[in-house]
Amino acid sequence: MWVDLDGLANLRDVGGIPTIDGGKIIPGRLLRSDNLQTRTNSDVDQLLGLGLTDVIDLRSDYEAEQEGPTPLATSAVRIHQFSLFREWQIGVGEPKPGVRPEVMPEEALPWVDLEPSAQLDNDVASVYFSYLVDRPDSVLAALRTVGQAPGAALVHCAAGKDRTGTIVALALSVADADRQAITDDYVASSERVEQVVQRLMASPTYAENLRDRPLSSHLSHPETMISLLRHIDETFGSVPQMLIKMGWTAEDNEQLRAKLRD
Predict the structure, then answer these.
(1) How much is the average pLDDT of 96-124?
(2) Whole-structure pTM value
(3) In the β-sheet with 12-13, what is the strand arrangement from edge to edge?
(4) Among 108-117, 120-129, 186-195, which stretch is predicted with the lowest mean pLDDT?
(5) Which of 40, 162, 179, 218 has its CA 20 to 30 A from that of 196?
(6) Is the pLDDT assigned to residue 113 strictly greater than 80?
(7) Whether 81 contacts 64, CB under 8 Å
(8) How many CB atoms lie within 10 A of CB 208?
(9) pLDDT tens-digit profile of 28-54?
(10) 3-class SS string, the chain
């Protein structure tokens, strides 16, 4: 369900998505969006009116440093930043423990051609699955934050389609959302991709990186999400079983399901 605000191009509520047992994801529990940096005061009021209490910011440390922190911190909203990229401390010689900087670009931006940590039958799905391989800490923390949020949780990155799409697809899978509906939600970002790219092109952080990339390269294709979820099923059995191998617990599972379904 699209939510139209002045300063955001790709904001929607996943409420209403059907589940495999005939139920629906509850509206007002999980929102997904593009970058919040250009939100207006009116947008903030409307987001608070939707019951927003937690923002899960999936931008890299570099993006947050260049663009500034999520400009929505109030007494009622908590900001959580969980990068899905392999990173090291920008400007510092020693890499962070547990990461592989040898394949990291100088600037941790989306759409930079990184070498995936895993190879699936779809190149973009390979990048998405690499988020899970490289940053299981951030993946689990993001999902736990959604489950623990007292009000609506909003997940965002830069465009709100790749990193955000991966985390939202995992959350919906835990809640037993219909697989086709998960894919349809992912693909919906293509409807707003022109507006999203225009917004990001206005930022020096993203403009050079985007300038020579055709608009078609930013579309969200169903084959990508189908490939990602199929690979998870074939390798682990299901999304929850994969998450358990990453450190997810039965309590985490029930909490997230209850958040989105009950």
Answers:
(1) 62
(2) 0.90
(3) 12-13, 30-33, 152-156, 52-57, 78-81
(4) 108-117
(5) 179
(6) no
(7) yes
(8) 11
(9) 999 999 999 888 888 888 999 999 999
(10) CECCECCECCCEECCCCEECCCCECCCCCEEEECCCCCCCHHHHHHHHHCCEEEEEECCCHHHHHHHCCCCCCECCEEEEECCCCCCCCCCCCCCCCCCCHHHCCCCCCCCCCCCCCCCCCCHHHHHHHHHHHHCHHHHHHHHHHHHHCCCEEEEECCCCCCHHHHHHHHHHHHCCECHHHHHHHHHHHHHHHHHHHHHHHCCHHHHHHHCCCCHHHHCCCHHHHHHHHHHHHHHHCCHHHHHHHHCCCHHHHHHHHHHHHC
b/e map 26-54, b = 16+ CB within 10 Å: bbebbbbbbbbbbbeeebbebbbeebbeb
- Tokens 């051609």, residue? 113
Residues facing residue 55 across a β-bridge = 79, 154
